[in-house]
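Example for tutorial group B:
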C-alpha cells in the first residue's frame, strides 16, 4: 500500500551512476557486484533499483559471514599455536611449573636458615677469636662453593669437583730435566 508521498520502486530502472549512488559505492564497485553475481546483468533500460539494493545487501551479509568465520578460525589458530608453544617449552624443560617454583622457594628459605645457624656455631663454641674468624671464613668459603656449584648446575655448566684445581693435560706439563 503506497501512501500519497511514497514511490513504488519495484519496476524502477536506473543507470550505472544512479546504482552507485543508491548503494554509496563507485561505478567500478557496482560492476564488480554484477561480475560476482550479486546484481543481475543490466537490461538496455538499466538496472532494477530493487536488484541493486538486494545485491549490495547480499554482498554485505556474505562479507560479514566470512569475517566472522575468519575471526573464529584466527582464534582457533592462535589457540593451537599457543598450545604448541607451551608443549614445546614443557618438552624442552624451559617451563618450570608453579609447584617446582614454590618448592625452590621453600628450599631457598630453609637453606638460608641453615646457613645462618651454621655460621653461628663458631661464635657459640669457640672463645679464641683468631680460630673463630678462621672457622667463619672457611664456612663462608664452603657455602660460596656450594652456591656456585648450584648456580652452575642450574645454568647447565658442568661443575668442577669441589676443592680441586683443574687438571692439566700431559702436553702442558714441562718435562723434568735430570741433573
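The residue assignment follows.
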Amino acid at each position: 500500500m503506497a501512501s500519497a508521498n511514497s514511490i513504488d520502486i519495484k519496476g524502477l530502472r536506473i543507470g550505472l551512476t544512479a546504482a552507485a549512488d543508491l548503494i554509496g559505492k563507485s561505478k567500478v564497485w557496482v560492476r564488480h557486484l554484477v561480475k560476482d553475481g550479486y546484481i543481475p546483468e543490466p537490461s538496455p533500460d538499466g538496472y532494477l533499483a530493487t536488484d541493486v539494493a538486494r545485491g549490495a545487501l547480499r554482498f554485505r551479509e556474505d562479507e560479514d559471514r566470512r569475517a566472522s568465520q575468519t575471526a573464529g578460525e584466527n582464534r582457533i589458530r592462535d589457540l593451537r599455536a599457543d598450545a604448541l608453544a607451551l608443549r614445546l617449552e614443557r618438552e624442552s624443560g624451559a617451563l618450570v611449573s608453579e609447584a617446582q617454583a614454590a618448592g625452590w622457594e621453600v628450599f631457598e628459605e630453609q637453606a638460608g636458615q641453615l646457613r645462618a645457624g651454621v655460621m653461628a656455631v663458631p661464635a657459640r663454641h669457640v672463645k679464641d677469636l683468631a680460630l673463630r674468624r678462621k672457622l667463619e671464613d672457611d664456612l663462608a668459603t664452603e657455602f660460596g662453593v656450594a652456591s656456585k656449584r648450584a648456580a652452575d648446575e642450574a645454568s647447565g655448566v658442568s661443575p668442577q669437583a669441589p676443592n680441586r684445581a683443574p687438571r692439566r693435560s700431559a702436553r702442558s706439563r714441562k718435562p723434568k730435566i735430570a741433573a
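The helical segments are 16-23, 27-35, 49-92, 98-125, 129-155. Compare this with the pattern of hydrophobic and polar residues in the output above.
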